[in-house]
Amino acid sequence: MPQQITLVGIGMGNPDHLTAAAMRAIAEAKAILLPRKGAGKDDLAQLREALIDHCGSKAQILYFDYPLRDETRPYIERVNLWHDEIAARWQAAIVDAGVTGPVALLVWGDPALYDSTMRIASRLQPKPQLQVIPGLTAPQILTAAHQVPINRLNGQVTITTGRRLRDHGWPEGADSVAVMLDGDLSFRQLDLTGLHIWWGAFLGMPEQILIEGPAAQVAQDIAEARASARADHGWIMDTYLLKKMAQGA
Ligand SMILES: C[S@@+](CC[C@H](N)C(=O)[O-])C[C@H]1O[C@@H](n2cnc3c(N)ncnc32)[C@H](O)[C@@H]1O
Known about the structure:
The protein has helices spanning 20-28, 42-54, 75-97, 117-121, 138-146, 162-168, 215-233, and strands spanning 4-9, 31-35, 60-64, 103-107, 129-133, 157-161, 176-180, 195-201, 209-214, 238-244. The protein contains 7 helices and 10 strands. The chain folds into 2 domains: 4-136, Tetrapyrrole methylase, N-terminal domain (Cobalt-precorrin-4 Transmethylase, domain 1); 139-247, 2-Layer Sandwich (Methyltransferase, Cobalt-precorrin-4 Transmethylase, Domain 2), CATH 3.30.950.10. The strands form 2 sheets. Strands 3-2-4-1-5 form a 5-stranded parallel beta sheet, with helices on both faces. It starts with a strand and ends in a 5-residue tail after the last strand.
């Protein structure tokens, strides 16, 4: 029988974000693979452990350490090697523990959005019997918190990264842009005329911060709120939505 692996989307670590399918998969897992705590990762590791308790799981916890990336290699090669090594560590943890039942992995947000867990799982040999349970994404929590539709009426939505916004500017043809993985608030490098922003940090968590307004007017407020929250917590995760406002939201 192939090893059963379930990738469980957990939203932003808030128990209210777990679907019934996610709760069932966590409760029924015989083992759960968890990245070990480390500098700056304790909060997220604790959130995952709290979710496991919340689901009444009796699963054996299989901790693994993330390998270091070889920064001397070109980006794609470096990431591919890193994924190979993570898959090897999962495999070793499962084999060492002699687990025969389903193994779950708790994936932040949704496993399909800016997450490589499915790519890593596809490297396991022999091929596992894979199940993917969708989770709430950061852009969904953001738009619900601000009560704003992600798309303009009949409009096109782009989801991109801070790096791409910085390197390539406003995505061609887009009138709504959701930005993730941005440590630099890269929207500040765009021409802000006519742009509206809905920004959120620690979305879905007790520390959630929301700021919204014409981008030129609120850019400084966002930068200050971000810097101060980051200093308080030691880390921050934020996401924002930008829209060209000529035709309304
Ligand atoms: C590696 S991606 C993971 C995305 C995740 N799979 C999802 O479905 O949202 C991490 C990025 O997601 C966003 N993010 C994750 N958690 C967040 C939170 N609680 N508040 C705001 N943004 C968050 C940030 O843009 C962060 O840089």
